[in-house]
Amino acid sequence: MPPENQSPIIEVDHLTKRYDSGTHALNDVSLNIREGEILALLGPNGAGKTTLISTICGLVVPTSGTVRVGGHDIRTNWRAARRLIGLVPQEIVLEPFEKVIDCVRFTRGLYGEKPDDAYIEEILRSLALWEKRDARTRELSGGMKRRVLIAKALSHRPKVLFLDEPTAGVDVALRREMWTVVDGLRKRGVTIILTTHYLEEAEEMADRIGVINRGKLILVKPKDELMGEFGKKHLTIELTEPLAALPEGLPPHVVLAPDGLSLGYDYDTRAERSGIARLLAALAAEDISVRDVATKQSSLEEVFMSLLENAE
User: Fold this and answer.
1) Do both 73 and 192 map to the same domain?
2) 90, 194: one domain
3) Cα 201 from Cα 90, distance rounded (Å)
């Protein structure tokens, strides 16, 4: 993860987008994104994720607030800001009769970049598209079309890459290959902002997690810090002999499995005392023999749902 004192490549300052209907798609959003990091934006449908990305990319005009990319204001110096950005949108929109390689070449030309077939080949090979370079885009599967969108977004060597639900409709094998490509881009210093409904991907790939809901940015934290602050652990105690019922001396919130052979106990990692010692002591006092003990950390999905519930 890039150092905290590194200058941000994206600066979002009090950004608001309000439509004539009165809907606040974005409500006073401020956010700094450091060069070379991966930021995952999480939120339910309609939360404002795509509006935020579209505004930073210059596709949506904000009602108020400012956005700078590489120090360039997206409204007053939009051309310089836009050259630093690559965008992979949710919707798959491609010219159906155009060849894959020509599609990527054309996008590169739109940014005023000189032809570079060696670089285009490098992109297509990294996305497993080289063998399909002469295929018409209408002949491709949905997953392959999404790869073409990524190739187009990378065609002008952007410093910032936005991935808006990049693996939607992609099978598991293609998804893993795409994240390998993303990891390679991160190693080359490309800043990546992604939205995804596959929360396990965000948990694995992201340096920081941002949670947005109803147009408001609830929080932005390093992933490990977020998991530490909001994550809970689940303790499973396997018993040697089954229990017919829970003894009265056990702490509250202990759950007996239907087969009576294990106990479940959720505890907060932030609490001064977890209650585990008390639980084990109570079992010993009841002469209940323990076979094994295991703990499991809450997943990002569980943390995410908890944040949304608390924000209501």
Assistant:
1) yes
2) yes
3) 17
Question: Are residue 115 and residue 156 in the same domain, yes or no?
Answer: yes
Residues 290 and 216 in one domain: no
Q: Would you say 11 and 157 are in contact if contact means Cβ atoms under 8 Å apart?
A: no
Question: How many domains does the chain divide into?
Answer: 2
Give helix 142-154 / helix 100-110 axis angle, nearest 10°: 30
Instruction: Look at the alpha carbons of 39, 192, 6, 15 in this order and tell me if their dihedral is positive or negative.
Output: negative
Which amino acid type is present at position 299?
S
Report the predicted TM-score, pTM, of the whole model to 2 decimal places: 0.76
Pull the structure tokens for residue 73.
Answer: 């204001």
Domain boundaries, position 296: 231-311
Please give the backbone phi and psi of residue 106, each rounded to the nearest 5 degrees, phi first. Answer: -60, -45
Which CATH number belongs to the domain containing residue 118 in this structure?
A: 3.40.50.300
Residues 238 and 170 in one domain: no
98: enclosing H helix or E strand: none
- Nearest Cα to 9, choosing from 60, 91, 93, 70? 70
Q: Which of 228, 251, 281 is the last residue of a domain?
A: 228
pLDDT in tens, the chain (312 residues): 555 656 799 999 999 999 888 888 999 999 999 999 999 998 888 889 999 999 999 999 999 999 999 999 999 999 999 999 999 988 888 999 999 999 999 999 999 899 999 999 999 998 889 999 999 999 998 888 888 998 999 999 999 999 988 776 667 777 777 788 788 888 888 999 998 777 777 778 899 999 888 899 988 999 888 777 666 778 899 999 999 888 887 878 889 999 989 999 887 766 667 788 888 888 888 888 888 888 876 666 677 777 777 665
